[in-house]
Design brief:
single chain, seven-stranded parallel β-barrel, mainly beta, 67% strand, 14% helix, elongated, 11 strands
């Protein structure tokens, strides 16, 4: 009797999942607009819109969802990608990627990979990766940027070029225009000495 009920329950559960999958596929096939106000994705391209569509509103990414440009609110449970720009607020998941920058406010996210020119306020991120970043990244495990203008506060802060402030256990800058505060600080162009504990200053 228990085995019978278990099979019946699992069978009903799988049917519900199949109906949801077929519904998402059907909606994506019937979708003609290039801009969506709402996006829901399971595993791209099984999502309401196409990966090349823009979203102007709200996106919920369950496993992996991809769109072009997004303006609005993004709630990522696992993986979310934008091949264009992103302007708005993100609740980060396991991996977030934006290919062409934007203005991003983000809470959380284990790996955040933002390419292009990006203005950010990021709080409680895991590993933040950026190309040309302006703004504030707070309470992260790792902050990395090729170019950074602003403040990085994390366990490890690494920038090729930074104008601003790094606060962490270990801070690294090839070119520092500003200050470093941490357990160990490296600035190739230091006013004092390249490697210093507690405090360092660029030329």
């Amino acid at each position: 009797y228990i085995v019978f009920n278990t099979k019946k329950y699992l069978g009903g559960y799988m049917k519900k999942i199949l109906v949801i999958l077929l519904g998402l596929i059907s909606l994506s096939m019937l979708s003609f607009s290039e801009t969506k106000t709402f996006e829901l994705g399971l595993v791209s391209p099984i999502q309401l819109g196409a990966p090349t569509d823009d979203v102007d509103g709200f996106r919920l990414s369950l496993l992996y969802t991809e769109n072009k440009n997004l303006n609005g609110f993004d709630w990522n449970w696992f993986i979310a990608k934008n091949s264009g720009t992103f302007n708005g607020f993100k609740l980060g998941g396991l991996y977030d990627q934006v290919d062409k920058g934007g203005k991003i406010y983000e809470l959380g996210g284990f790996v955040n990979n933002f390419k292009g020119d990006t203005k950010v306020v990021q709080v409680l991120g895991g590993i933040n990766i950026g190309e040309n970043v302006t703004g504030l990244r707070l309470f992260s495990l790792v902050n990395y940027a090729k170019e950074m203008k602003g403040t990085d506060v994390g366990a490890i802060n690494y920038a090729n070029h930074i104008e601003g402030l790094q606060i962490g256990l270990f801070n690294y800058a090839t070119h520092l225009s500003g200050f470093q505060i941490g357990l160990l600080n490296y600035a190739k162009n230091s006013s004092f000495f390249p490697i210093l504990p507690i405090f360092n200053k660029g030329e």
